[in-house]
Design goal:
single chain; 40% helix; alpha/beta; four-stranded antiparallel β-sheet
Length: 405
């Protein structure tokens, strides 16, 4: 029976959040612990990032840097490092004093941006499936989410089958209405592993300019693109520099997800708006870690190349194992997640499959349907994380083989 207040006789939880219960990540992680299963569900590495960056955090702590409240926009060293990173890698010039805002991870950056830029009734177009905080933050801001679905697509080149989830640009254009305030874009895309192409991003940019839309781009997996894929920040395209809020994060690039250091780069008026909301969320966070992340962003290209090569090898290891176990595998062009189709295994309900998988094979995964408004469309897809030690992935592959018979 729902608890009601004596005066209002309504549920205690804000009705905007009524549809959001405990996250699937909490449920599946608890299941992994209770069954002793290998957790390939939640996307966090099981090893720390570079030792010199961890030591940089220790040094900051000992030197008393960041132990008290850091500046609201973030420590100057990190803001300068962020602008240097954007300039060096993408040719994007930002003013560290007016165009950068450090946040408590990318999750807070998303929340602050949506709370700042939306008013009740504004529509937000998001690529479905989407990271679950998107829907909750849009709801908290009083906005209306409008999903545009990435759909599975298969092509054959030189006898090799290539599978990816692809954006239907016509569907995106048709979703825009007079109430559309902004587009929420995620590339490289979690959970599908899709990396939007230059052609797709150009079409998005042209649409945003034509319809005078703001764009929030979640680019936390910018350093995890594989094979021929290329990460292209939307802000680099014509007409987008002044209307795009770009979100980055240290957690996914340096394997320190617990430090919760993210950032926003945008034009001064957009950063000022996001900062107005952010200051009433955490105000500031992660003081000593900000100094360490400043050093991390200045690591040589060899670090990023080795990091990417290691994750690519792990992708290939787990992907081959999943295919051998009977899954249809969508080989990701980015992120550290693999989406699979469970229908070749005689299954069609991802929730039921994932809840049974720990007992069947001693492995935990995430049902993609939780990332969809159209749950039926996402029902047969299941996501596995490969940001784990090679030995852990090898053991998971051996366990999953039992599904094949």
């Amino acid at each position: 029976m729902a608890v009601m207040t004596s005066s209002a006789r309504r549920p205690l939880l804000n009705r905007r959040l009524a549809e959001f219960g405990t996250t699937i990540f909490a449920e599946m992680s608890a299941l992994a612990l209770s069954t002793g299963s290998i957790n390939l569900g939640q996307g966090f590495p099981d090893t720390d990032g570079p030792e010199e960056i961890r030591e940089a955090a220790v040094r900051a702590l000992r030197d008393g840097r960041g132990n008290q409240y850091p500046p609201g926009p973030g420590v100057p060293e990190l803001r300068t490092a962020i602008t240097a990173h954007q300039e060096r890698r993408y040719g994007l010039g930002f003013d560290p004093d007016t165009e950068v805002l450090v946040t408590a991870g990318a999750t807070e950056a998303i929340a602050a941006a949506l709370l700042a830029l939306l008013e009740p009734g504004d529509e937000v177009i998001a690529l479905e499936p989407y990271y679950d905080s998107y829907a909750a933050c849009i709801a908290m801001a009083g906005g209306t989410r409008v999903p545009v679905t990435l759909r599975p697509h298969e092509e054959t080149h030189d006898g090799v089958v290539h599978r990816r989830f692809r954006l239907d640009l016509d569907e995106l254009r048709d979703a825009v209405t007079d109430n559309t305030r902004l587009l929420l874009i995620n590339t490289p895309h979690n959970p599908t592993g899709t990396v939007l192409t230059r052609e797709e991003l150009t079409a998005i940019a042209e649409l945003a300019v034509e319809r005078d839309l703001l764009v929030i781009t979640d680019e936390v997996y910018e350093h995890l693109v594989f094979d021929e894929a290329e990460h292209i920040p939307l802000a680099t395209l014509p007409g987008m520099r002044g209307r795009t809020v770009t979100i980055g994060s240290a957690g996914k690039s340096f394997s320190f997800t617990g430090w919760k250091v993210g950032w926003v780069t945008a034009a001064p008026d957009l950063v000022a708006a996001v900062r107005s909301a952010k200051q009433f969320l955490t105000y500031v966070a992660s003081g000593p870690f900000q100094y360490a992340v400043a050093e991390a962003l200045a690591l040589p290209d060899t670090y990023f190349e080795a990091f990417r090569a290691d994750m690519r090898a792990k992708r290939d290891l787990l992907g081959a194992g999943l295919a051998e176990a009977g899954f249809t595998v969508f080989r990701p062009a980015g992120t550290y997640f693999i989406t699979t189709d469970i229908r070749p295994l005689g299954e069609s309900d991802g929730f039921a499959f994932c809840r049974a998988l720990p007992e069947r094979a001693g492995v935990v995964a995430i049902p993609n349907a939780v990332f969809y408004d159209h749950r039926d469309v996402g029902a047969p897809f299941v996501r596995f994380a490969f940001c784990k030690q090679t030995s852990v992935l090898e053991e998971a592959v051996q366990r999953l083989k039992t599904l094949a018979g």
